[in-house]
């Protein structure tokens, strides 16, 4: 065939090439060199593009069975081809056919890696040139997002493995903004035609001392409005929600729901992470509320301080979970089960059956892992099955009611194609933020106003003092100045942080507009005064009546 794949110009007659030959050819290290890109790689990627479904499956199988080094060579060739093509011509709208063909081939390599016993790290498939272009020009991502919503049109969003988590977060934000805009306009026109008030916002009016009750009641009553832009008002307070009030709302409500007093979650002694309490007396509504709140936080671009084990994110993305996940989430329990597997003698000596028991408020409860499990001994022959069933019980069966309610609340807000771009590892970053507190990056990205500049003596003192604080005090500063101590998925350098001069009276404390990440800093003259006033300001970070 002489077609270029996606309806492009003919690329010249080429001989038919089978999947095995293509797998070997595209894994050749020599093809990394630019002189081979147009003569060999471009034509080979166009051949991959026109393969039928059976041939594609065969090519994936060939790569999945290949040594890891061969798979890595093929991935490197595709990346180098894309990088040079993008550097020479930039990303276009629509994407140039050679680049699209190479991304398509990279997608088959990604599928092969996922099914291989020697899988590559998922970050091996992100392309630096593509992400650099998207980061430099946000209109490119908007254009690609529009293409993604069309049928039979190539888009990078449909090949999310090439995108960094930050780019995926931007796609999710675009999708959220589109839905919010649609809901906003719908409420406006309904108000016009029905002559009744329909708020364009999801407005929550809550009392601090009845936070959970008010949140439950209002979210249940406004279930159809969850995709409107969120506004929060603390009754009796003056704060206007331009973003900062909702940050505090999420912080407080999550802290209360994870409090041991509520009994909804238990904390592992080793990891200090929270897991669903299988014996909780709380109704499904409370667990659904947690899921809804996490969904709302994602939808409204708020980072949360939640400490779930990784397996929660795997479950949310419908990834299989087993003993390895149990070992990471509950290391002490997994260690005991591993000892059963490694027992040198007769496992029957351990007197185990296919049943587990645990105490529920003073009473002993027995749960069978298989039918009549209490009567089935664990032996050397079935101990692997016992461990797997135990892991399934802990991770799935025992908390099925609680997790299903949680997942229902989460999906009510966040279910949709945009969220499916994320792997579970990236979903954790999206919810909890980047763990790296890089204040040097924040300093480089900061903008100054009202007479301040990067070289102003007060600003130099400010960064000297801030960099010298302990990590916990730095987190308090973030809460004070931005409303959250969590870092966006693409780091502190992505914050639009502003510092303005706030007079010359050194007796005044710094203040902040958290909704705008805006610090108001008096013109302190010494490091001693700067440190004293800054520490006093960040001690009490709850409440927006002062800001």
UniProtKB/TrEMBL annotation:
UniProt-listed GO biological process terms: protein polyubiquitination
Reactions accelerated catalytically: S-ubiquitinyl-[E2 ubiquitin-conjugating enzyme]-L-cysteine + [acceptor protein]-L-lysine = [E2 ubiquitin-conjugating enzyme]-L-cysteine + N(6)-ubiquitinyl-[acceptor protein]-L-lysine
Every HECT domain range: 222-547
UniProt-recorded Gene Ontology molecular function terms: ubiquitin protein ligase activity
InterPro entries, per the entry: E3A/B/C-like (IPR044611), HECT_dom (IPR000569), Hect_E3_ubiquitin_ligase (IPR035983)
Keywords: Transferase, Ubl conjugation pathway
Active site per database record: 515 (glycyl thioester intermediate)
EC number(s) recorded for this UniProt protein: 2.3.2.26
CDD domains: HECTc
Name of the protein in its database record: HECT-type E3 ubiquitin transferase
